[in-house]
């Protein structure tokens, strides 16, 4: 399991408003994640997580939330004690429900009705998903494949498996099933619904594997009609944040301007998160200080996002490094003091520049005596000479080949390919064709060896 960074500062969102945008399993996941990471919202988030767990059927989640909540309560506080009666009652109910669904599925198999078997596996998979048995849910959904009779059924199965795989963090399974869903022949209405969800899931899987450029491309391609149709996983606000940050980390200014800011489809998402739009606009306008300050103001919010948490540091570092490179590009030398003012950082700017120079992302040298950053001098005369020599070699080679071909034609050495009719109707084999052709290629005025008048 990935390490979690503690968040000491309060985020800008209100917890109750934030969590109300989601439905299903992700509500508990996000509440529990915030409770384990945030020092400000821990108690409120964990109490909400306990209430959310008791409203569902997953006993293991309830126990985990109570154990975490105890760390923030007094030992004598009754709020930190398990509700054994509820747990025993829920366990009996879930066991009875599992037995009922398995009996029904067995009956469907005996009757050999495909549609009933498919629906029985789907209900069983949904039940396992609700009680937290994700591996069993994946197997149940996978068994639906043999009993799907329409492309819509296969698409529904793929979405079910994708949803379980997202909660398991199995990004390879997500991408595999997204490709399966995209290759189906669906009607327009069904295709639009599947396309929006599958594209969002693909972007999330690419974000999970730190493929920021691919993730940005996927999020930017989501249809504005997506709205909150996938809020059991993410909302439209999440699409704006994920897409905007991935684009900032992986695209240059021209791409940001044309693909993000000027995108008609993505504009509706950016309107939900105006600070992301401001940050991208600042970056495109070379206002790097304002861009970094805007992002830094929302760092706590992003660190409390269940899918963005582990990538925040990497994304911010990439954006900052890109800003430094583009800030330095027009100059031959810049003082370190001016760079420190523009790119305020808790660590000395020299250390950051040294790391970038070692990584090869910044082509420059540091003069510590004069405290300036000096760009590497380019030998323009040498570059021009090398380009001229390369052009001369290319011209000489092409001229030589043309002269060679002209001389071969004049000498009668041109070999013509046999006609189609000759190869198909004459009944000659490949060897005969070769021998026949080779006999015809000879200099003019010369007779073949062994020829007699």
Please provide a written account of the structure:
The chain has a 3-stranded antiparallel beta sheet with strand order 1-3-2. The protein starts with 14 loop residues before the first helix and ends in a 13-residue tail after the last helix. β2 and β3 (372-375) form a beta hairpin. With 453 residues, it is mostly helical. It contains 23 helices and 3 strands. It has helices spanning 15-19, 25-37, 42-54, 59-70, 84-111, 114-131, 134-142, 151-168, 171-182, 188-208, 212-220, 236-250, 253-261, 264-270, 274-284, 288-297, 299-303, 312-328, 336-342, 349-359, 380-410, 420-425, 430-440; strands spanning 333-335, 364-367, 372-375.
Q: If you compute it from the alpha carbons, what radius of gyration comes out, rounded to the nearest whole angstrom?
A: 33 Å
Biggest β-sheet description: 3 strands, antiparallel
What is the general shape?
flat
Bin the strand percentage: under 5%
DSSP summary: helix tally: 23
Average pLDDT value?
Answer: 86
Helix content: 55-70%
Q: Spatial order of the strands in the main sheet?
A: 1-3-2
What is the number of beta strands?
Answer: 3
């Amino acid at each position: 399991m990935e390490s979690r960074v503690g968040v000491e500062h309060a985020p800008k969102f209100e917890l109750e408003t934030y969590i109300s945008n989601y439905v299903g399993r992700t509500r508990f996941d996000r509440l529990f994640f915030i409770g384990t990471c945030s020092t400000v919202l821990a108690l409120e988030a964990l109490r909400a997580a306990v209430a959310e767990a008791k409203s569902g059927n997953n006993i293991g989640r309830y126990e985990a939330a109570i154990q975490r909540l105890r760390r923030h309560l007094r030992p004598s506080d009754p709020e930190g004690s398990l509700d054994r009666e509820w747990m025993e009652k829920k366990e009996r109910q879930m066991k009875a429900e599992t037995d009922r669904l398995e009996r029904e599925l067995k009956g469907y198999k005996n009757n050999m009705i495909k549609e009933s078997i498919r629906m029985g596996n789907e209900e069983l998979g949904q039940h396992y998903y609700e009680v937290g048995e994700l591996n069993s849910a994946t197997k149940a959904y996978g068994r639906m494949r043999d009993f799907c009779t329409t492309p819509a059924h296969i698409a529904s199965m793929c979405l079910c498996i994708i949803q379980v795989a997202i909660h398991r963090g199995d990004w390879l399974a997500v991408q595999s099933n997204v490709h399966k869903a995209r290759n189906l022949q669906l009607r327009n209405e069904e295709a639009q619904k599947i396309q929006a969800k599958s594209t969002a899931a693909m972007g999330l899987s690419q974000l999970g594997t730190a493929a920021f450029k691919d993730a940005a491309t996927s999020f930017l391609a989501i249809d504005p009609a997506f709205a909150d149709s996938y809020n059991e996983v993410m909302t439209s606000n999440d699409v704006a944040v994920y897409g905007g940050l991935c684009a900032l980390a992986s695209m240059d200014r021209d791409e940001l301007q044309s693909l993000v800011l000027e995108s008609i489809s993505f504009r509706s998402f950016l309107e939900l998160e105006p600070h992301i739009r401001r940050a991208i606009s600042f970056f495109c306008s070379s206002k790097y200080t304002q861009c970094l300050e805007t992002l830094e103001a929302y760092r706590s919010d992003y660190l409390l996002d269940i899918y963005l948490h582990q990538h925040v540091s990497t994304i911010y570092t990439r954006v900052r490094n890109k800003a430094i490179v583009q800030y330095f590009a027009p100059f031959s030398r810049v003082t370190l003091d001016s760079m420190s003012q523009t790119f305020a950082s808790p660590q000395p700017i020299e250390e950051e520049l040294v790391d970038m120079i070692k990584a090869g992302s910044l082509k420059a040298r540091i003069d510590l005596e004069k405290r300036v950053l000096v760009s590497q001098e380019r030998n323009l005369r040498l570059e021009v000479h090398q380009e001229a020599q390369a052009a001369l070699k290319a011209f000489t080679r092409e001229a030589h080949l043309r002269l060679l071909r002209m001389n071969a034609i004049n000498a009668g050495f041109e070999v013509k390919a046999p006609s189609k009719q000759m190869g198909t109707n004459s009944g000659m084999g490949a060897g005969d064709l070769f021998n026949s052709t080779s006999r015809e290629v000879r200099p003019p005025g010369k007779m073949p060896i062994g020829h007699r008048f």
